């Protein structure tokens, strides 16, 4: 076990910004790659790299199709991928029904999905709820990411059976989970973990993003544990990767003043979106050894979270069960996807 705890603070960000990940070199020739949150920033830069490395088909999950067309133009202008190989599909991560429809569409439209980069994410400056009734950060960063991962399992198993190569679901997380402390999560047994962080009185702008990414790690642990029961051997690899602190528009909902200050700070302690995307693409090329692991910079992270093991284990088991319960209300059969 490593004795290194947490992210390492601002100095680590400063160091990482000056030591960006290596350029990915793995081939994606012949593969169908899905990227969500693909119209700007990390998702767009990752899509460009997948195309440059030979992806045969590139599926872009975008909320706004007009902006998706702009992203498609950028990708085809910077790479040699044919225009008809870049496919746009509408995806609204504030809607469980949109995610379900998106998953049905691509699972029915494509013969294979080799790589799924689940990149959509937000950092909210204030409390807001989706039409589904969930605080936006929890819905986008955790619940619909989990929903899409579960919805893709059957198609990605079929892909592995056909190709003989493991498919991979690469979930974009954040090293921010390493800094979450026990006293950030004061959830009693009288309420669920998700209900607690869905309440406006428990919303903390400085903590909610970190907590959402911690809950995402709990989901990864849960789905990997369920997969251990499988005897099929064709389950996709589930890896969580972080691009590190990057100059993106994830904080676009913050006021101008905060964005201006943050942009100034980021010039010194953040990578470009292109540099951050290198990590996402390289981690998407890993094999079975990546299953259940956390990829950071150019390899697997050995840093430990500040959360104590007892707190982690308790919250993980509760959160995993709660995520399934929430999703089953919108897709009653979604847990069936965990079975071979």
Automatic annotation (TrEMBL):
It comes from the Eukaryota. Pfam families: adh_short. InterPro entries: NAD(P)-bd_dom_sf (IPR036291), SDR_fam (IPR002347). Residues 1-27 are annotated as: Disordered. GO terms for molecular function: oxidoreductase activity. Keywords: Oxidoreductase. PANTHER family: PHOSPHATIDYLINOSITOL-GLYCAN BIOSYNTHESIS CLASS F PROTEIN-RELATED (PTHR43157), SHORT-CHAIN DEHYDROGENASE_REDUCTASE PHMF (PTHR43157:SF22). This is NAD(P)-binding protein. The lineage of its organism: Eukaryota, Fungi, Dikarya, Ascomycota, Pezizomycotina.
